[in-house]
Write a structure and sequence with these properties.
The structure holds two protein chains of two kinds. Chain A is of the alpha+beta class. Chain A has helices at residues 2-23, 38-57, 71-75, 103-112, 156-172, 185-194, 199-210, 214-221, 229-237, 245-254, 259-274, 335-341, 363-371, 386-392, and strands at 61-62, 68-70, 87-89, 95-98, 121-130, 142-151, 179-184, 242-243, 281-283, 296-301, 310-314, 328-334, 352-356, 376-379, 395-401, 406-410, 416-419. In chain A, strand 10 (296-301) and strand 11 form a beta hairpin. Chain A is elongated and about 90 Å long. By secondary structure, chain B is an alpha/beta fold. Chain B has two domains: 4-91 and 182-209, Periplasmic binding protein-like II (D-Maltodextrin-Binding Protein, domain 2, 3-Layer(aba) Sandwich); 92-180, D-Maltodextrin-Binding Protein, domain 2 (3-Layer(aba) Sandwich). Chain B has a six-stranded mixed β-sheet, with helices on both faces. A five-stranded mixed β-sheet of chain B has the order 8-7-9-6-10.
């Protein structure tokens, strides 16, 4: 035993010495977070701007909530509390939480600060939520999200508006054919009512759905005794069912208890079509991890993104937990996933100018270019290799003053031109 | 069909091939793989072959659309993927086993407050002992787990058992059964929606022949 212990201690010491050998002096960051450098930052901003632009055109006005909140307030958003989150104490010993989700703070804001607004209330946000990363999932701690929430009358009209706004925003951000799938927590519940499932069965079935296990779902449905015949087959297949309106018509026939929810989803589909948005796929296996959702649930997918680029749904009971009941629906785009799915955003090809010899000697010309939105950077005449510098800075042209006029090199193709003054360069 | 399917090398490989064949997929390129890790079937899917524990990694990240993997790996790694179908083969069970004779675990808990467990399945082992109210110290080993209790590295092992032959040959006895495992068909969250028709069709064909 003692031999083992000392061997263990030795191996730990040995390995840590090894680690420092090849890792050198480190300046580490906590797990799951990273810096964003200029190229990525510019592309993320461009995406954010196009998404927010579309949301704004639908009348959603931006709000911001604090980075930290009281833990017990945010915990109200979930039946069993919010689970894993970064928590800390304030100077009076109260527990604070770094916001692990954005819907809960926005619901709080709408229910408290905007409680007197008759509504419907339309708000948008572009912010970061933070959750401790789970080891090995590759899912970061920080999630940049751009989203909207609509607290209104609670009808299918609101659901459709949010779905249509999402589709339009994704298209504006460069996703040509966003595929949106919608499910419904209320519809699944209605089918469970139809088979008279008890609470244990419901918990097990919802657990299976949230674990995305069709196998566990099928196993659990065998224990629901009332589920026989066509109703039993419907229950067993429920999370596997997907398609268009015809699917809802079929479910309504087999499970009359779910007819109202089916009719509502059908109506939603019609309304979304009226917006001219691509038809969402009905998929009853779509559920959300947060259990505040109560009606339609929304996901959007793009090739190249490993998880849904946008998620959301209806959460009618959340407002009441903060003192002002008001049905609401919302959706959020995860910016990093969208970024993986789209190419380089338009308008972000390099186009700036590097002026050799200092823009300070050409202040007026430089200022004029800057006024038109073209970046201008000066570099000393003695600087070695200005073309390479221009490339690393995302600038497209290098301009050198000549005896009369300028010599301009396009660093993307090496083509040189002569111009009389900066105001008439190829960047105009 | 443009789907990419991740097939586990090792114990589940042959039966995976049978299941793929039964579902009407071409498997000829998989029969003479040699050292190739990826093969594209003309008019068929692309297959990639990996270690069993890596299958969920490829599927979760979207590098593969579908994958075949044991439930043991799913429970250990908890990937965010759809578990579509129990394929029925590769049946085995996850067990807690200790040396034959007196079970050393209760004594270890009584005297040291902790039981030492060697396993490849660190998360499963931890969850099992936590859920049964015992404090466990998990030692991660990557192979020949049965060796650990024989040389005093641990009081017992949490491992996957098919026939129990290896346990018996090493003088170990199964004390507790943790869960049953078999091969599962899993899908990437995005592929499951973007390739809905192809995935659903394939699931139907697999289901007809499963079990």
């Amino acid at each position: 035993m003692s031999e083992l212990t000392s061997a263990f201690a030795l191996s730990v010491l040995g390995s840590s010495a090894l680690m420092t050998d090849f890792m050198g002096d480190q300046v580490p960051l906590p797990d799951g977070v990273r810096d964003v450098l200029p190229v990525e930052a510019a592309e993320l901003s461009a995406l954010e701007t196009s998404l927010m632009g579309v949301f704004s055109s639908f009348g959603y006005r931006e709000v911001r909530t604090p980075l930290i909140e009281f833990s017990d307030v945010v915990d109200r958003g979930q039946d069993q509390g919010i689970g894993r989150a970064y928590r800390m104490f304030d100077d009076q010993g109260r527990v604070l939480v770094l916001r692990p989700d954005l819907t809960i703070p926005i619901a709080r804001l709408i229910a408290t600060r905007m409680a007197d607004e008759p509504g419907p209330v339309r708000v948008s946000y572009a912010a970061r939520a933070v959750r401790p990363p789970s080891a090995g999932t590759g899912q970061g701690a920080e999630r940049r999200q751009v989203g909207i929430e609509l607290a209104g009358a609670g009808g299918a009209e609101d659901d459709a508006e949010v779905i249509a706004a999402l589709a339009a925003a994704l298209q504006a951000a460069g996703l040509e054919q966003p595929q949106v799938a919608i499910g419904s927590v209320a519809l699944v519940d209605a089918v469970l009512d139809a088979v008279d499932a008890d609470q244990d069965a419901r918990d097990a079935l919802w657990g299976a759905l949230q674990g995305r296990s069709m196998v566990a779902w099928a196993n659990e449905t065998r224990r629901v005794r009332r589920a026989r015949g066509r109703l039993g087959a419907l229950l067993a297949q429920l999370p596997n069912l997907r398609g268009g309106g015809e699917l809802l018509t079929r479910i309504a026939k087999i499970a009359p208890a779910a007819a109202a929810e089916c009719a509502r989803l059908l109506h939603t589909l019609d309304l979304v079509a009226a917006y001219g948005a691509p038809a969402p796929m009905i998929d009853l296996g779509v559920v959300r991890d947060w259990n505040y959702y109560s009606g339609v649930v929304i996901e959007a997918y793009a090739p190249g993104a490993s998880a849904p680029v946008a998620v959301g749904g209806r959460y009618d009971a959340l407002g009441a937990r903060f003192g002002r009941p008001r049905p609401a629906v919302g959706v959020a785009v995860t910016l990093d996933l969208l970024h993986h799915a789209v190419g380089v955003p338009e308008g972000h090809e390099p186009r700036g100018v590097l002026v050799v010899g200092g823009s300070d000697t050409r202040v007026t010309a430089a200022a004029m270019l800057r006024a038109t939105g073209i970046p201008v950077v000066g570099v000393l005449a003695a600087y070695a290799g200005p073309e390479e510098f221009a490339r690393t800075q995302g600038l497209r042209y290098v301009a050198r003053p000549m005896k009369s006029g300028w010599k301009v090199v396009d660093v993307t193709d090496g083509v040189a031109t002569r111009i009389a003054s900066l105001e008439e360069g190829p960047w105009i | 069909m443009d789907l990419t399917i991740c097939v586990p090398r090792g114990a589940l490989f042959d039966e995976s091939l049978e299941a793929l064949k039964a579902a009407g997929l071409p498997i000829d390129p998989l029969l003479n793989l040699g050292r190739k890790l990826i093969v594209k079937c003309p008019d068929g899917p692309t297959y990639i072959t990996t270690r069993p524990t890596d299958v969920p990694v490829y599927v979760e990240s979207g590098a593969a659309d579908l994958g075949i993997v044991g439930r043991d790996v799913l429970l250990e790694r908890q990937p965010d993927v759809y578990e579509l179908l129990d394929l029925g083969f590769g049946a085995c069970r996850m067990v807690w086993a200790t040396m034959a004779g007196d079970d050393p675990a209760p004594a270890a808990i009584d005297r040291f407050g902790v039981v030492r467990v060697a396993s490849k399945y660190v998360n499963v082992a931890e969850a099992w002992f936590e859920s049964t109210g015992r404090k466990a110290e998990i030692v991660k080993v990557n192979g020949s787990v049965e060796l650990a209790p024989l040389v005093g590295l641990a009081d017992g092992i949490v491992d996957l058992v098919a026939t129990g032959k290896t346990l018996r040959e090493n003088g170990l006895v199964e004390r507790e059964q943790i869960f049953d495992s078999s091969a599962r068909l899993i899908a990437n969250r995005v592929s499951h929606k973007l390739e809905a028709a192809a995935v659903d069709d394939l699931v139907r064909r697999f289901a007809e022949h499963a079990r």
